[in-house]
Amino acid sequence: MGETVYDSQIVGILAKMGDKGMSVQMLAKHLYNMNCSLFEDRDIDAMRRYVQQFVLRNSRSPLSLLERMERRGFYRLNPRRAFVPRQLVFEFNGGQAADEEPVEEDVGQQQALRLPDLFS
Question: Which superkingdom does the taxonomy of this entry point to (predicted)?
Answer without folding.
Answer: Bacteria
